[in-house]
Structures are given as C-alpha cells and as structure tokens.
Amino acid sequence: MSIQEAQVSRADFDQVMVPNYAPAGFIPVRGLGSRLWDQSGRELIDLSGGIAVNGLGHCHPALVEALTTQAHKLWHVSNVFTNEPALRLARKLTAATFADRVFFSNSGAEANEAALKLARKVASDRFGADKYEIISTINSFHGRTVFTVNVGGQPKYSEGFGPRPEGITHVLYNDLAAMEKAISERTCAVILEPIQGESGVLPAELAYLQGVRALCDKYNALLIFDEVQSGMGRTGKLFAHEHYGVTPDVLTTAKSLGGGFPISAMLTTNDYAQHLAVGTHGTTFGGNPLACAVGETVLDIINTPAVLDAVLAKGEYLRDKLRAIGEPYDLFEQVRGKGLLVGAVLNDKYKGKAGALMAAAERADLLVLVAGPDVVRFAPSLVIEQADLDEGLARFTRAVAEFVSQAQA
Ligand SMILES: *Cc1c(COP(=O)(O)O)cnc(C)c1O
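Above: query sequence and pyridoxal-5'-phosphate SMILES. Below: predicted holo structure tokens.
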C-alpha cells in the first residue's frame, strides 16, 4: 500500500508530528457550514470556527467556487509580477477601511512582523536610530515568530528561545496611566488588540483607546491595531476598532480573511507605506492568487450590512443564552465580547477548569474553545444557521450539566 492509501489515525500524531500541539482524540475529515464529521462519521457542531478562522463556516460554496476557479487559472507567479486577485482584494480592503495601501502575507505573525518593521523603519527614517521602542500589553498575543512572541505579553510563550530582542515594553491593558508612563520620544509604536482574544476575550475600554491614540499622536508613535482575530466581521463591524471610532495608523488582519485559506494583510496609509520602499521587505507566498481570490470572496460576502448586522444580533443572542445556561449553577462571572467573539468567564469556584468544560462539550459533540484557563471562548461561523446555533447551545447545556456534576464530585 502506498503512504497515500494507508490508513492514518490520531495515534500517528504522537509518532510523526513535532509534539507542540495536543490535538483532540478524533480527526475531522469533512465539514459543511457549522457541522464537522470525524473519521468514524460522528457529527459535531462547530462553535469554534477553527479559532476564529472559518468566518463563513466550512466549505462555503462561494469560497469553494472562488478557489477552484482560480486553481484552474494561476497559482503562483512570484513578486516579480503582480496578479489580478491581489490587486482586486487590495482595492476592496482599502475602499472599506482607513488605509490606502496593503501588504499581503500568510499568517497573523507575519502581518504583525511587517507592521512592526514598518513602524521601526518610519521612526528610523524620520527621527533617527534612537526611536525604536515598541510598547505592547501584558497578556497580549501577536504570533509565534521570535520577534512577535516577544512583543506578545505572555512570557510563558517567549521563554527559552535565547536573548530577547531589545526595545519592547509591556504595560497593563486598559490602564492609560501605565501607557502614559511608558511612552516617550523613543517609542516608535504601540501595538494593541482592540479585544484581547487569546488571553480571555477582553475588550478595550473606549477612553483607553482614545487616550492611547492621543499619546501616539503626541509622541509620533504609530498606533498598530492587531485585528488578526477581531477583524473581518468577527465583532459585527468589518474591523473591531470601528466600534470605538478610533483609527490606527497600521492594522493587521489574518484569521477570517481567508476563511480557512492562509492569508494575512497589513494595512496602512500612503504616508507610512512609502517607507517600505523596494527591497525593504518581502515574502515568497504573500499575496498569491489562490489566497487573494478566496479573500476577495470572503470580503464580498462579509462586508455587507445584512451579514454584519446578523453577527451583532447572533452575538447578543449567544451571550444571553450562555448567561441563562450558566445561571442555575452560578457558572459564569461574566459573559463578554463583541459580535461573535464571545468569552464566558468562569466563576471563582470553577476557575482553571475551562479546559475541562471544553472537553465535556466535545463529549456532547460540540466544539468550543478556551481563552486561557478561566474562559470558554466561542467564535462560530459568522453566517451560522439559527438551527445550528440552537443545536450547539442545546449540546452546551448538556455539557455544562455533566461538567458541573463532575466538578462537584
Ligand atoms: C492568532 C493571532 C495571531 C497569530 O496569527 P498566526 O496566523 O497564528 O501567526 C496574532 N495576533 C492575534 C490577535 C491572534 O489572535
């Protein structure tokens, strides 16, 4: 039997894969909308959305069509040439945002890397070599390259990888006084998630974002919003910062941009973009025709009032239902988030057990996420059918009952 025909199972993971993940015990093989099937044919409801990536669910027909149509035309031409899907997607992204210019890459970390390199280049060109400090926030997440993992504010992810890059400071999120104390003429950029995703679905306060914007203006520092997770309609606006009316100088987005096909983007203005002149930055795969054809279709579908308004309404509905499910057990301290990025924060007596609740959900044929040890996170398809959402909530109700009885045992 050839390798291609050979049966593979979850046990193979432990033999042939680098053990940096601990995947579930089953292997998904097929998906449609908000449903997934594993090797045994078990059907699961997916309220995790591939960690906020499958913004249009699994195998959305329009995305399948866009990908396969492009697959018959052109896959890759290198950056020696430009290509039509990239130009179309860039036109649409700039028309829909504050930005004039786009740089495409393949992952959230790479988009952030580009944003941070841009900020340092702008500062170096305009103000000289001493303006390179980057301010980030505690518990933030910006990716796993050596640079972005150090910009991120979770030391457990950056320890053990040698000397840390210089010039990165971390301050408490939503603490304007701390930002004011940290920022100076040496600061080239402040990077923030408008909603901290990985560390617990924690939204920024309005006065905080407004205050940070003013500080960045005062000190000639670029304000970078990392909307890798919160962007592309996830919160009921195309980008989460639109809820606040606070505009960044640079925005990064990824996850839902390709709906499951790898693509990311860094967006900025003409004024700043000119600093990344020919030869200053690049990537082999960024902006390839397949990814951009899919991204264009994702944007066309998501960036409509009907879809975005429905995300807001479904988010309200989901949060209300989760509060009701938790109420009899006094399970949640708070159910927070915006649109369909939702975090249910466990009460004191259940702290640290988000993973156990996620496992109980899986036994009830339901996929949810955690965001740290205390928060159960939901990031379903933005176009989830009401029936799938309700079936998912029914399964979650059963999972919660099992979880609570075990936690008390
Ligand atoms: C997921 C995520 C990243 C990293 O994206 P990758 O595609 O894994 O590199 C960066 N920032 C935020 C806010 C994220 O949620």
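The pocket of pyridoxal-5'-phosphate is lined by residues 107-109, 112, 141-143, 193, 197-198, 226, 228-229, 254-255 (CB under 6 Å).
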